[in-house]
Design a protein that fits this description.
The complex is a heterodimer of chains A (about 350) and B (about 300). Helix content of chain A is about 25%, strand content about 30%. With about 350 residues, chain A is α+β, with helices and mostly antiparallel strands. In chain A, the strands form 4 sheets. Chain A has a 6-stranded mixed β-sheet, with helices on both faces. The longest helix of chain A is centred in the middle third of the chain and has 18 residues. The two termini of chain A are about 15 Å apart. In chain A, about 40% of the residues are buried. The N terminus of chain A is likely disordered. A two-stranded antiparallel ribbon of chain B has the order 1-2. In chain B, strand 1 and strand 2 form a beta hairpin. In chain B, helix 4 packs across helix 15, helix 5 packs parallel to helix 9 and helix 14 packs antiparallel against helix 15. The longest helix of chain B is centred in the N-terminal third of the chain and has 35 residues. The N terminus of chain B is likely disordered. The chains are: A alpha+beta (about 350), B mainly alpha (about 300). The interface between A and B is medium-sized, with 25 and 21 residues.
Chain lengths: ~350, ~300
């Protein structure tokens, strides 16, 4: 299941030191494991997403890096420096909290200045840095406001500016857009990605929203049950999921029980469909947009039970003999939508038939 | 308030005034009660303090001699200062103990255990005030629990009388008596605090103590000031505690007032009472200022 095999920098000296490195980190609450021997390497300057359902260990991982939770076992390193023994205020890490946790008794400017004040940065040096941070998040005219006088999106930006003004090696973001509505969230996703490019700091972003992760991250670690299920770029994770959990969690997918041999999968009803690799009993996964509604080599017969117009595409549900749930097909060409009850033939390219958890 | 009424057109005010009077009817019992049992006696005391006592009877002859007399007797003035520092110290100790308690209760104690613990704080109020003070005699006295323990432990060979009848005993008992007021007031304001802010402060480089004093304390200022008012002002007027456990060394201004009245020096007693009352009024005004100035940020 766990597919992450990482090379430590000390075993390969030609590589630059990792931004963050977790080595065999275990976290147990009582006897309850929250993280099971996590190995993770996050590159310096990358926008890294920890993605997974609630309780998967993503927030625990973030808190371990931030220092709010101590690991039961293992080590955490940032830029070749061990930090898991340091208290939060001594780590080169700053956090954007889900609730923002702005200080309500201080103005926006004082909020942003707070971290520099704690570091005893002189006023003459901190003032330009505070203004620069406010400019970075587009709040240069809001310095004198109180947090309660700002909208949710603005408060979120103050939280980002407050953390970034300290120029941390790593910025941790704990579902920072969770409390905002969809439109604002999408706008701030773009802004956060821009801010990341501007400052070049390593971002570690925790979310349960796959779309959010896909839209911003350089790489994503999909987590489940205290483990990393898969780690890769958004495209790799979408196109080549290595487990049913990942395929199910990221995007829409169709699953079939199959017996696989030499790039052909035999389904429950005896249909033979194309797939890539694997052998023996396995789960076959096909993305809705990979399926074509046309009879061709290796076709699967079915009957249309529902068509839904969803704006940019038409979703067609097709009942087949080989899967309990209807097969979902996404048609981007709205000119050839079949009618309900019409028999159709489903086909896809061999590379789009992804074999998961082969029985080997 | 005044700004909003000023913008209301004049015509609208008059009918509203009539309706307003009716809606104030509910205050009448309270106004009568306060008037009869507070304002009228207060007026009498003010008059007394400017009259004279001659041969145990009050003469209606206007003078400020009572005030001059109080400040001319060194023992009285030093008792006044002693009262002030005993009150300041007891308040500081009571609040100093109450703050960690309230902090611990609202941050670390699970919700279901908080109410029982708060009830435990209040339990002493179920017994009489006098009893609570007297019980300290059985702890600190020469045959008290403390002395017996010290003898049993072999630390002393004979009972010590140093624990009672001086300022330390007074301060100890006052702290014990007023701790619950501080704890309850502070708890109710700390309880609403968003603890993520302390995490954020530490994340930004504050040490735990810095986080508490720069983030938590400024935000619960109204609670702290209320707690100080609830503890400091009653202590200022205390006379039973110093009387029972303070002996001659622990006299406070409340005891002076009682003495004056017992010796039929009504006018001098009235003057000292008013001095204390005036001091408290000034204190409340100062506290109120600092409260409203800080309330501005609230939303």
């Amino acid at each position: 299941m766990t597919t992450t095999v990482l090379v430590h920098p000390d075993t390969n000296s030609t590589r630059p030191p990792a931004g963050i490195e977790l080595r065999r980190v275990v976290k147990r609450y009582g006897s309850q494991p929250a993280l099971r021997a996590l190995d993770l390497e996050i590159r310096d300057g990358e926008f890294f997403c920890l993605l997974g359902p609630s309780g998967c260990g993503k927030t625990t991982t973030l808190n371990l890096i931030g220092g709010f939770v101590a690991p039961t076992e293992g080590e955490i390193w940032i830029r070749s420096r061990r930090i898991d023994t340091l208290p939060p205020h001594k780590r080169p890490v700053n956090t954007v909290f889900q609730s923002y946790a702005l200080f309500p008794h201080m103005s926006v400017r004082e909020n942003v200045r707070f971290g520099l004040k704690m570091d005893r940065v002189s006023r003459s040096e901190s003032t330009p840095r505070v203004e620069e941070a406010l400019r970075l998040v587009g709040l240069e005219d809001f310095g004198d406001r109180m947090p309660a006088q700002l909208s949710g999106g603005q408060q979120q930006r103050v939280a980002v500016a407050r953390a970034l003004v300290k120029r941390p090696a790593v910025l941790l973001l704990d579902e920072p857009l969770g409390a905002l509505d969809l439109k604002l969230r999408q706008r701030l996703q773009i802004e956060l990605a821009q801010i990341h490019r501007d400052v070049g700091t390593t971002f570690v972003y925790v979310t349960h929203d796959q779309e959010e992760a896909m839209s911003m991250a350089d790489r994503i670690a999909v987590m489940n049950d205290g483990r990393i299920e898969q780690l890769g770029t958004p495209e790799e994770i979408y196109r080549r999921p290595t487990s049913r959990f990942v395929a199910d969690f990221i995007g829409d997918s169709n699953f079939f029980d199959a017996t696989v041999a030499s790039d052909v999968a035999e389904l429950a009803d005896g249909s033979r469909v194309p797939c890539a690799g694997g052998s023996g009993a396995a789960t076959l996964m096909v993305r809705p947009e990979s399926i074509r509604l046309a009879g061709s080599e290796g076709a699967l017969a079915g009957r249309v039970v529902q068509t839904s117009f969803l704006g940019s595409y038409v979703r067609v549900a097709v009942e087949t003999a080989c899967a309990e749930a209807p097969v979902i097909v996404a048609l981007h060409d709205a000119t050839s939508v079949p009618s309900i009850g019409e028999p159709v033939e489903l086909s896809w390219a061999a590379g789009d038939g992804i074999v998961l958890e082969p029985g080997t | 308030m005044t700004a909003s009424t000023a913008t209301v057109p004049r015509r609208a005010i008059l009918p509203r005034l009539g309706a307003g009077l009716v809606s104030y009817a509910g205050f009448i019992p309270a106004i009568v009660l306060l008037g009869l049992f507070f304002l009228v006696p207060l007026g009498i005391i003010v008059c007394y303090s400017f009259w004279e006592t001659i041969d145990y009877s009050v003469v209606h002859h206007w003078t400020s001699d009572n005030y001059h007399y109080f400040f001319s007797v060194t023992a009285y003035v030093s008792t006044m200062w002693a009262t002030l520092w005993v009150a300041v110290l007891s308040t500081a100790l009571a609040i100093g103990l109450a703050f960690p308690f309230a902090y611990w209760l609202s941050r670390y104690v699970p919700k279901r255990l908080r109410t029982p613990l708060l009830v435990l704080v209040i339990v002493p109020f179920w017994s009489s005030y006098l009893l609570r003070v007297y019980s300290w005699l059985t702890i600190l006295g020469e045959k008290g629990v403390l002395n017996r323990f010290l003898e049993w432990a072999g630390i002393t060979s004979h009972p010590l009388s140093v624990f009672l009848y001086d300022r330390p005993a007074v301060i100890l008992v006052l702290v014990y008596l007023y701790f619950p007021f501080g704890a309850l007031t502070l708890y109710s304001s700390i309880e609403r605090f968003d603890w993520n802010q302390l995490r954020a402060a530490m994340d930004l480089g504050a040490s735990p103590l810095q986080a508490i004093f720069r983030i938590l304390v400024p935000q619960i200022r109204p609670g702290i000031i209320t707690a100080i008012i609830f503890v400091f002002i009653p202590i200022l007027g205390e006379y039973l505690t110093p009387q029972i456990v303070g002996g001659t060394g622990g006299v406070m201004i409340g005891n002076l007032i009682v003495n004056f009245f017992q010796e039929a020096e009504y006018t001098r007693g009235a003057a000292v009472s008013l001095l204390v009352a005036a001091f408290i009024v000034v204190l409340l005004v100062v506290f109120r200022r600092s409260l409203s100035a800080k309330e501005a940020y609230g939303a």
